[in-house]
Design goal:
Blueprint: H1 3-18, H2 25-39, E1 48-53, E2 58-63, E3 66-67, E4 72-73
Antiparallel strand pairs: 1-2, 2-3, 2-4
GO molecular function: G-protein beta-subunit binding
Keywords: Cell membrane, Lipoprotein, Membrane, Transducer
Main location: membrane
């Protein structure tokens, strides 16, 4: 693509972003917290009480003080 085409696309993108309705970060945070609270019953991750590392390869998740149905393999984050 030519430099002119790139600059035209950049101008279009900036014009589109200029027209986006802005809200304060504090309001966005309140909305996000409210959304999470409203949907936490259907979210397994929000009900995890604790996590135990048995050894280098296994993790046990506790949901509402009950043991998860199985031991899950710990992700290998060292090789990422």
């Amino acid at each position: 693509m030519s430099t002119l085409t790139n600059k035209e696309k950049l101008v279009e993108q900036l014009q589109a972003e200029r027209n986006i309705e802005r809200i304060k970060v504090s309001m966005a945070c309140k909305d996000l917290i409210q959304f999470c609270q409203d949907h936490q019953d259907g979210d397994a991750l929000s009900s995890i009480i604790s996590i135990e590392y048995l050894d280098s390869n296994e993790i046990i998740y506790y949901f509402d003080n009950t043991l998860a149905s199985s031991v899950l393999e710990r992700p290998d984050i060292e090789n990422i």
